[in-house]
Amino acid sequence: MTENHNHDHNHGDCIESALVTAESICKSQGQKLTKVRRRSLELIWQSHRPLGAYQLLAKLAEEGFNSAPPTVYRALDFLLSAGLIHKVESMNAYLGCAHADKAHKGYFLICDACHNVMELEYQDIHNSLLAKAKQHGFEIRANTIELTGLCESCLNQELTSENLDKAGH
Question: 48-70, pLDDT tens digit by residue?
């Protein structure tokens, strides 16, 4: 989930980087990255598509982890509070945080075709929203910015298909 998202990149690198960051963050917070938390994070990072809690639960159960929903929700709550994952509200699913090593606000570009999600930082937009809210005497307590459309790869496929259709007629 970098800004230069590429469908063909190595997810193993993403997972390894996320785990190294997670270990460091947990250590600095005096927390433990338990087996279920670690495996949950790995599974969430396996692709750039958000993973639902019950999808995660099924994958963990296949691997012999406790299959009770509270186990998964506790792991997800921990990963969220540690800033290691985000919840994509419109999909009710979870996505690895590409910038977990620094405080930030992010927004999500969600592809309607392939369902990949890209996280971009928006601290400048967040600060502007806070200022506008303050002008109106409003305190923002939560916010989610999710934009839907087509990623570069799917847009190119669509344009290629359209061109082929036009050439064929």
Answer: 789 999 999 999 999 998 878 99
Beta strands in 81-166 (DSSP E): 85-88, 93-96, 106-111, 117-121, 146-149
Three-state SS for 97? coil
Phi, psi dihedrals of residue 98, rounded to the nearest 5°: -75, -15
User: Sign of dihedral through CA atoms 22, 86, 94, 148?
Assistant: negative
Predicted TM-score (pTM) of this structure: 0.81
The type of residue at 44 is I
Beta-carbon neighbour count of residue 35 at 10 Å? 10
Rounded Cα–Cα distance for residues 30 and 28 (Å):
6
